């Protein structure tokens, strides 16, 4: 079974600071997804990374994928309170099966 | 914007009862999914469905679970004999054919088994 590990699991940071969330996975895959989940809400797709070296940016969030290291990162630049949420990475395996990481609960303090 | 619709939003049932959770995926999507999220935990893949059949399923998706697309628009998850540990949020998702396409998630059904 493919394992997906995220760290940290909890992240408390001040507004304006930068930080990175890491997502490691155990089996070859070149499809990685990042999602955001607000408390009590559904999942919102943030990024789809489809190849080695892929980098995507949206606002203060930037995601990258290194398939050789089996690592994806979600970098937060100059965090703002509105980014407080839980962030999940998910790996697509065997064409149509998704494995999710445990999630990183981000709290940005004003 | 098109969205995935799930009903009911909250289902309460007695242990041992059957429940059916309903989803209406986005109309031009071809892949359909069910996920489970126990409170405060990660999202767990249950099953994917393509071309009117299951394409992948997880170890969680045992004989008490089944999925159906009865009429070309609805996508249902049936749990035959619910257990206390089935209490969770169940999310339906759908996406278009290409892997680059994102999954759109429904708002979820909270299942409470008493």
> Helix proportion of residues of chain A, in percent?
under 10%
Summed over residues and divided by their number, the pLDDT of chain A gives a mean of 92
Which structural class is indicated by helix and strand composition of chain B?
A: mainly beta
Given helix and strand content, the structural type of chain A is mainly beta
- SSE ordering of chain A: EEEEEEEEEEE
The first-to-last residue Cα distance of chain B is 36 Å
Secondary-structure element pattern of chain B, one letter each: EEEEEEEEEEE
**What is the total tally of β strands of chain B?**
11
Shape of chain A: globular
- Strand-residue fraction of chain B? over 45%
Give the C-alpha Rg of chain B.
13 Å
The helix content of chain B, as a percent range, equals: under 10%
Main β sheet profile of chain A: 6 strands, mixed
Shape of chain B: globular
Low-confidence sequence ranges of chain A: none
Assembly classification: heterodimer
What does this structure look like?
The complex is a heterodimer of chains A (110) and B (114). Chain A has strands at 4-7, 10-14, 19-25, 32-37, 43-49, 55-58, 61-66, 71-76, 85-93, 97-100, 104-109. Chain A has 110 residues and is an all-beta fold. In chain A, strands 2, 4, 5, 9, 10 and 11 form a 6-stranded mixed β-sheet that branches. In chain A, strands 1-3-8-7-6 form a 5-stranded antiparallel β-sheet, with no helix packed on it. Chain A is globular, with a radius of gyration of 13 Å. Chain A starts with a strand and ends with a strand. The mean pLDDT of chain A is 92. Helix content of chain B is 0%, strand content 50%. Chain B has strands at residues 5-7, 10-13, 19-24, 31-37, 43-50, 53-57, 65-68, 75-79, 88-95, 104-105, 109-113. In chain B, the strands form 2 sheets. In chain B, strands 2, 4, 5, 6, 9, 10 and 11 form a 7-stranded mixed β-sheet that branches. In chain B, strands 1-3-8-7 form a 4-stranded antiparallel β-sheet, with no helix packed on it. Chain B is globular and about 40 Å long. Chain B starts with a strand and ends with a strand. The mean pLDDT of chain B is 92. The A-B interface holds A 1, 31, 33, 41-45, 48, 50, 88, 90, 92, 94-103 and B 31, 33, 35, 41-45, 48, 50, 55-56, 58-59, 91, 93, 99-108.
């Amino acid at each position: 079974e493919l394992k997906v590990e995220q760290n940290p699991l909890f992240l408390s940071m001040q507004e304006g600071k930068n930080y990175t969330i890491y997502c490691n996975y155990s089996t070859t895959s070149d499809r990685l997804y990042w999602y955001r989940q607000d408390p009590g809400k559904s999942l919102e797709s943030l990024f789809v990374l489809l190849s080695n070296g892929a980098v995507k940016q949206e606002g203060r969030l930037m995601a990258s994928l290194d398939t050789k290291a089996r690592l994806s990162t979600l970098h937060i630049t100059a965090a703002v309170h509105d980014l407080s949420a839980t962030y999940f990475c998910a790996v697509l395996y065997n064409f149509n099966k998704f494995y999710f990481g445990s999630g990183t609960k981000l709290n940005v303090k004003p | 914007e098109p969205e995935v619709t799930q009903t009911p939003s909250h289902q309460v049932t007695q242990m041992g009862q059957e429940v059916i959770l309903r989803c209406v995926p986005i109309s031009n999507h071809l892949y359909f999914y069910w996920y489970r999220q126990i409170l405060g935990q990660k999202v767990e893949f249950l099953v994917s469905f393509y071309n009117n059949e299951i394409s992948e399923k997880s170890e969680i998706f045992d004989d008490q679970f089944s999925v159906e697309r009865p009429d070309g628009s609805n996508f249902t998850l049936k749990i035959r004999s619910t257990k206390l540990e089935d209490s969770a949020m169940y999310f339906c998702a759908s996406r278009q054919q290409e892997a680059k396409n994102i999954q759109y998630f429904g708002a979820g059904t909270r299942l409470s088994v008493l």
